Amino acid sequence: MNTTELLADLQTQHDETAARAGELRAHIAQLSADLAETETRLADLTTARKVIAELVPAGSSESEPPETNTAYQAITNAFNKHPDQQFRARELHELLGMPTDEASVNVTRARLGRLLRQGFLTQPGRGRYQKRT
């Protein structure tokens, strides 16, 4: 095999590998988007279940015990314990011992946005949240 053939073979391998890397990146991006969408849906379902559970009269045979170990509950508990303190999403994760990877923090940002729209929180600054008083 001469140098020209070797370089041509290396270029072909490079092109094939680069194409495969591009396919994998696209697949990862799609999976990340799907995961974020699923996490958001899961959070919405949890919120809906909590709201319905709160509306069911106490002592009703249909009511389930409220789940106190959810991410929303942990977040609201943190704000209730520190009503005058402002938090960023990452700071909440650190306070609550939750994972601080970007995907997890982004899900919490979406949850904080929902709590903001529901009137539980205020946003005194960009990216900062505080319990509404």
Structure description:
There is one protein chain. With 133 residues, this protein is mainly α. Helix 1 (3-55) runs parallel beside helix 4. Strands 1-2 form a two-stranded antiparallel sheet. The chain has helices at residues 3-55, 71-81, 89-96, 102-117; strands spanning 121-125, 128-131. It contains 4 helices and 2 strands; from the N terminus they run ααααββ.
Q: Provide the low-confidence segments as ranges.
A: 61-68
- The percent of residues in helical segments reads 55-70%
Along the chain, the helix and strand elements come as HHHHEE
Rg, rounded, reads 23 Å
CA(first)-CA(last) distance:
77 Å
Q: What's the overall average pLDDT, rounded?
A: 86
Question: Total number of helical segments?
Answer: 4
Assign an overall shape: elongated
Number of strands: 2
> Largest beta sheet, briefly?
2 strands, antiparallel
Task: Please give the structural blueprint.
Elements lengths: L2 H53 L15 H11 L7 H8 L5 H16 L3 E5 L2 E4 L2
Helix pairs in contact: 1-4
